[in-house]
Recover the amino acids of this structure.
């Protein structure tokens, strides 16, 4: 028999089921570890950077009333697929929503009161045990909706920072409207009168007379 | 051989389970505890100083070992911090008048941070770099970074000197008010 006529040798590889099981367990273990590591590192952390003070301003703001509200802010725009044949099919054929959506929940605070620095010497007059006071018009001193006050409830598609900021900014406008409706300025003015009265009475004065700010008369009452 | 196929099949089922199950359970239900909050509340706070501060919020997301590429973001923001004193407990007991020598001692609480305002309109994205195989920063991720920035600003308050400045202004404020009332000597005590 020549070499060419030799019967080809059969190569047999035996794989032990135990080894396969061990390999599977190893891979599964690695994947689980990676998954856990991902969860731990899921929250991105920022670097500790310096805080630069750009302006210091002296104030004399007496805050006497605060309005709190929560609201839902939504914005939609055509999604990346919406103008494609696939998007049209999904929308028209299957009634699927192919738009991008952003839904935020905002918690905001409006702080109102009077700016005592607006008072001149003529706005407070002492006469015996009586004081005549003319308080400045009440105003919204702070409208606060910080990043910690926003919750991204739903987000689909790509949203640029400017688009998100624009939507977040509408929360401030809505807060002002709601605070107006709730009569916050009137409440703040009345609170300022109480605060100033208490201070003057504590200082030994018996009668406190208010020459009301004209804007106070026009202010709606709570629930008007 | 059949055994091997069976084992490999089980392995893929396991893999699918690992990737799918946590994905479904990632969204933890929100706390649905009912809270009652008054829409309008009364307060008595005297803001005496405002600091305008700027901060750079920067993050570098190199990702996990199985993610290729990285993401970087730089946001600049402005915050307005107001400090002053809480006058809600102020009463006649806080004013000690001595009629004989025309002096008065006013006792007020120590200054504290009264408000922190970080308007969205003053937050700018200065730089954003995302490599090809990574996803862009989402609104939720950007907000999470800004929340951390806000927290850092809040924690910097003691070292800013804003509280000392507020107490300095409070002293001046009460001295001016009581001098107008005719008192010759005004002492302001913080406790």
């Amino acid at each position: 028999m020549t070499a060419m006529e030799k019967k080809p040798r059969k190569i047999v590889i035996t794989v032990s089921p135990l080894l396969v099981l061990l390999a599977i367990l190893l891979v599964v273990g690695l994947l689980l570890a990676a998954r856990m590591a991902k969860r731990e590192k899921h929250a991105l952390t920022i670097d500790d950077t310096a805080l630069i003070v750009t302006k210091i301003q002296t104030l004399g703001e007496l805050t006497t009333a605060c309005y709190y509200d929560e609201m839902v802010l939504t914005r939609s725009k055509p999604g990346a697929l919406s103008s494609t044949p696939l998007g049209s099919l999904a929308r028209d054929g299957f009634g699927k929503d192919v738009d991008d959506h952003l839904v935020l929940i905002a918690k905001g605070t409006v702080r109102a009161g009077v700016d005592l620095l607006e008072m001149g010497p003529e706005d407070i007059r002492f006469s015996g045990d009586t004081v005549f006071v003319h308080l400045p018009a009440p105003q919204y001193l702070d409208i606060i909706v910080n990043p910690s006050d926003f919750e991204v409830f739903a987000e689909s598609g790509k949203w640029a920072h400017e688009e998100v900021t624009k939507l977040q900014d509408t929360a401030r406008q809505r807060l002002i409207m709601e605070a107006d409706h709730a009569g916050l300025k009137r409440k703040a003015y009345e609170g300022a009168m109480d605060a100033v009265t208490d201070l003057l009475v504590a200082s030994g004065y018996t009668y406190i007379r208010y020459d009301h700010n004209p804007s106070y008369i026009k202010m709606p009452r709570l629930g008007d | 051989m059949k055994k091997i196929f069976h084992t490999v099949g089980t392995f893929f089922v396991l893999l699918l389970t690992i990737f799918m199950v946590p994905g479904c359970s990632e969204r933890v239900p929100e706390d649905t505890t009912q809270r009652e909050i008054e829409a309008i509340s009364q307060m008595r706070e005297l803001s005496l100083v405002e600091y305008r501060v700027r901060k750079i919020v920067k993050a570098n997301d190199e990702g996990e070992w199985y993610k290729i590429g990285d993401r970087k973001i730089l946001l600049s923001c402005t915050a307005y911090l107001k400090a002053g004193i809480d006058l809600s407990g102020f009463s006649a007991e806080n004013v000690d008048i001595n009629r004989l020598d025309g002096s008065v001692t006013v006792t007020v609480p120590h200054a504290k941070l009264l408000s922190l305002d970080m308007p969205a309109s003053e937050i700018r994205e200065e730089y954003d770099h995302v490599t090809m195989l990574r996803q862009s920063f989402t609104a939720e991720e950007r907000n999470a970074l800004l929340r951390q920035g806000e927290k850092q600003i809040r924690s910097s308050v003691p070292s800013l000197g804003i509280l000392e400045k507020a107490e300095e202004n409070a002293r001046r404020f009460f001295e001016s008010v009581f001098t107008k009332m005719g008192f010759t000597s005004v002492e302001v005590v913080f406790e």
User: Anything to note?
Assistant: The beta strands of chain A are 51-77, 100-115, 124-127, 130-133, 139-144, 150-155, 207-210.
